[in-house]
Fold this protein.
Amino acid sequence: MITTHKTIQLLGRRLTKTRKAIINSLSESCCLLTKEELIKKLKSQKINPNRSTIYRELQFLTKNHIILKNIISGKDYYEIPKDHHHHLICLKCNIIVKVNIANHLKKQEKQIAKQNQFNIINHSLEFYGYCHACRQAGQKCQA
């Protein structure tokens, strides 16, 4: 597997300070980060790019499959594709939990691709509902 830095070089692009900081921040994160969360992480590293620079960098990294963009409840989230996983999203508190699903989903994906003569390069699957804490809080409010 080619490293992210090597991929950027193969694309004929430079690994700028901001680009490297974005990649490192996403690599250190266990899952999804919003653009706002990324900006906070960059500022904590004394890197203060303007919003258009962040936008262009995220667009470049996404377009070149270096990072993944997920849209959850209308909000953009970014992550480095380390392992394939899915998410549980609470509709009340918006907590997002990473979950792994057994290999049978890979078999279904291959079957879907074959049946539809479609080259699948990625998929997104999110589960929406209510986390334990929100369900407990809801029960207390109804009593």
Remarks:
- Helices lie at 4-10, 17-28, 35-44, 51-63, 104-116, 132-142.
- The chain has a mean pLDDT of 84.
- The two ends are 55 Å apart (CA to CA).
